[in-house]
C-alpha cells in the first residue's frame, strides 16, 4: 500500500474501510496534495498550525465519501477533488475551533494546536481554512454544491452552539442530543455524500439517497464514538477513555443511564457532569451505572439502527463498487464497537 | 431622521456620512431586518450573542458601501440587500473572533460577548454568522460575488494570523503592518465595494475602480483608528484611548516612533509592547515620544494619502449621487482626526 493514505500508514487491519480506500486511492492522493497546497501561506504560522492537525492521521473518511459518491456516477473531472478537500477543511476548521471550545489538551493523541500555538492561532487558522474551503467550492462553479456546503457550515455551527447550550446539563433529552449530533457531526457526512452526486450530475433521487446515507452514517459514527468513550481503548480513539466524562459531556450512554437511574444515581450524575466531580473513582462508578442500566447496549442498538438506515438509503442505487464500498464503511464504523 | 439607521440614533452631527446614509436608507432598513432574521435560530444562545453585538451601534459602513455601489449602476433587485447583509455578518463574525483573540473586555463601549457568554459562544456564533453569510451569497446566485467574498474571507483570516504572528514584536516593519491591515481591515471594504457593481452587472473597469476605492478607504480608515487610539477620546471609538497600547498592538504611530527613537527610547517601547510594561505612566510616555517624533502627524499623512487614493479611484466614474456619497465617506473617515 502507498504511503499517501493515512489509513494505510497505520499498519493494522483496515477492516472493511479497505474498499473505499482502494476505490478513492488515486483521487485521495490529489486531495492530500491539494490539502497541503491550500493550507500554504506566506504567513508561516498558517501551514504550521494547519499541518500539525492535517498530518496527525485522521482517517479522512469525509473526503472519501465525496470521491466515492462522485465515482458512483462515473464522474471524470477535477471538481470532486476540490469539493472533497473543501469538506476536509471544513472538518479541520471545526476541530480547531472545537479544541478551543472544549479546552482540549489532546487531539488524535497529540497535543492540540491550541496547546502549542494558543487559542488565538486555532481560532484564526480555522477561519482561514474555512475561507479556503469556500474558495475551492467557488472554483468548481457548482452553485448547488455551494448551497449544500454553506447550509452545512451554518447547521454545523448551530449544532455546536446547541451542544454548548446543553453542556453539563443532565436534563438534556435524547431528542436534544440527537439534534446536537445531527448538526455537529452528521450534517457534514450528509453534505460530503451529497456533493459527490451533485458534481457528477446525478439525478435528484440519487442525491437525496446519498444525503440520507451520509446523515444516518454520521449519526451511527457519533454514537459509536460515544460508546467507545466508556468502553474502548485510547489507541482506537486518539483520545483517552473517559475524556467525554471528564469534560462533562452529556452523551447517549449518560442520558440513558440518568433516565433509568434512581434518585441517588441521578444525584451522582449531576455531581459528576454538572459540578465536575469526575475523578477516576467517579469514572469507575459511571461505567458501573452505565453497565447496570444497559445504557451502552442500548446506545449500540441506536447506532446499529442508524447503520441499518444508512444501508437502506443505498438500496435504491444500482450495485456498484462504490455502493459496495459505502456499505462497507457502515460496517467499519459499527465494527469499532463489536 | 428615522430610528433604523444606527448613525441617526446617535443624535450628533453625522458629518459627511449623511449622503450615504440618506442614499441607502430604504435599503438599510431591509438590511437591518435581514440581519435580525438571519441571526435567528431555535438555539436561543445564537440570537442572544449575535444581537448583543449587532444592536451595539456599529455604523454599518460596510453594508452601506455595497448598497451605494449597487445603486450607482441603477440596480433594482433584491440581491444587493443579501450581499450587504453577508458583508455585515462577515464583519460581525470577525469581531466576535477578534475579541477572543485579543482577550478584549469591551467592544463598542459594552462588555464584549465573550465576557458575558464566554469564548466558546463567541467562536461558535461567529462561525454560525459566517455560515449564514455564505448561505445568503448563494441565494443571490452570483458566482462572481461568491468569489470576491470567499477570497475576502480567506484573506481577512490570513491578515489576522499575520497580525498575531507579529503581535508584540517591535521589529514589525511599516510594510508588514500595511500588509496586516490590508488583510484584516481593507479587504472587506474592498469586497463590500466590489460586490455592488458585480450584482448590478457593471463593467469590469467600474468594478476594479470601486474595489480600489474600498481598499484605499479601508487602509485610511484603519490608520485613522490607530491615530485615534493615541489621540482621540473614548466616545469617538467605543473603546478607550490607549487600548491598542495596553494590548501590546504594534500600530503605525508606534512603528514610526520606534524607528525614529534612540536606543533608550527603543528599550522603552520593547518594555512596553513586548514585555507589557504599559501602565498609565508608560502610556503618557508613549504619547510623548509619539509627539516628539511627529509619529501621529506622519500616520495622519499616510491616512490622507490613502484617502486621496480612494477619491482618485472614483474619478473615472461619472458624477452621481452615489459617487458623491462615496467621496463624502472618505472625508468623514479622515475628519475623525482633523
UniProtKB/TrEMBL annotation, chains A, B:
<keyword id="KW-0460">Magnesium</keyword>
<comment type="similarity">
    <text>Belongs to the FPP/GGPP synthase family.</text>
</comment>
<dbReference type="GO" id="GO:0106350">
    <property type="term" value="F:all-trans-octaprenyl-diphosphate synthase activity"/>
</dbReference>
<keyword id="KW-0808">Transferase</keyword>
<dbReference type="InterPro" id="IPR033749">
    <property type="entry name" value="Polyprenyl_synt_CS"/>
</dbReference>
<comment type="function">
    <text>Supplies octaprenyl diphosphate, the precursor for the side chain of the isoprenoid quinones ubiquinone and menaquinone.</text>
</comment>
<dbReference type="Pfam" id="PF00348">
    <property type="entry name" value="polyprenyl_synt"/>
</dbReference>
<dbReference type="GO" id="GO:0046872">
    <property type="term" value="F:metal ion binding"/>
</dbReference>
<dbReference type="GO" id="GO:0008299">
    <property type="term" value="P:isoprenoid biosynthetic process"/>
</dbReference>
<dbReference type="InterPro" id="IPR008949">
    <property type="entry name" value="Isoprenoid_synthase_dom_sf"/>
</dbReference>
<keyword id="KW-0479">Metal-binding</keyword>
<protein>
    <recommendedName>
        <fullName>Octaprenyl diphosphate synthase</fullName>
        <ecNumber>2.5.1.90</ecNumber>
    </recommendedName>
</protein>
<dbReference type="InterPro" id="IPR000092">
    <property type="entry name" value="Polyprenyl_synt"/>
</dbReference>
Amino acid at each position: 500500500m502507498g504511503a499517501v493514505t493515512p489509513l494505510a500508514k497505520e499498519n493494522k487491519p483496515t477492516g472493511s474501510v479497505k474498499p473505499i480506500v482502494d476505490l478513492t486511492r488515486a483521487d485521495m492522493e490529489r486531495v492530500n496534495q491539494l490539502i497541503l497546497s491550500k493550507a500554504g501561506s506566506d504567513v508561516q504560522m498558517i501551514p504550521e498550525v494547519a499541518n500539525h492537525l492535517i498530518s496527525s492521521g485522521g482517517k479522512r473518511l469525509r473526503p472519501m465519501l465525496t470521491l466515492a459518491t462522485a465515482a458512483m456516477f462515473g464522474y471524470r473531472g477535477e471538481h470532486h477533488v476540490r469539493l472533497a478537500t473543501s469538506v476536509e477543511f471544513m472538518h479541520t476548521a471545526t476541530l480547531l475551533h472545537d479544541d478551543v471550545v472544549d479546552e482540549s489538551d489532546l487531539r488524535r493523541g497529540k497535543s492540540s494546536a491550541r496547546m502549542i500555538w494558543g487559542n488565538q492561532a486555532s481560532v484564526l487558522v480555522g477561519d482561514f481554512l474555512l475561507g479556503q474551503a469556500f474558495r475551492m467550492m467557488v472554483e468548481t462553479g457548482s452553485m448547488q454544491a455551494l448551497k449544500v456546503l454553506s447550509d452545512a457550515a451554518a447547521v454545523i455551527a448551530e449544532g455546536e452552539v446547541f451542544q454548548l447550550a446543553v453542556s453539563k446539563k443532565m436534563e438534556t433529552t435524547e431528542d436534544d442530543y440527537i439534534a446536537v449530533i445531527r448538526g455537529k457531526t452528521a450534517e457534514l457526512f450528509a453534505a460530503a455524500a451529497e456533493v459527490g452526486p451533485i458534481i457528477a450530475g446525478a439525478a435528484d433521487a440519487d442525491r437525496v439517497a446519498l444525503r440520507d446515507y451520509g446523515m444516518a452514517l454520521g449519526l451511527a459514527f457519533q454514537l459509536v464514538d460515544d460508546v467507545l468513550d466508556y468502553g474502548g481503548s485510547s489507541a482506537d480513539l486518539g483520545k483517552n477513555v473517559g475524556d467525554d466524562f471528564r469534560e462533562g459531556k452529556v452523551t447517549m450512554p449518560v442520558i440513558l443511564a440518568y433516565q433509568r437511574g434512581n434518585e441517588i444515581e441521578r444525584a451522582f450524575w449531576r455531581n459528576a457532569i454538572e459540578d465536575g466531580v469526575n475523578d477516576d473513582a467517579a469514572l469507575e462508578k459511571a461505567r458501573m451505572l452505565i453497565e447496570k442500566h444497559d445504557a451502552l447496549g442500548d446506545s449500540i442498538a441506536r447506532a446499529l439502527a442508524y447503520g441499518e438506515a444508512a444501508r437502506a438509503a443505498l438500496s435504491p442505487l444500482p450495485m456498484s463498487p462504490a455502493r459496495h464500498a459505502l456499505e462497507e464503511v457502515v460496517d467499519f464504523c459499527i465494527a469499532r464497537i463489536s
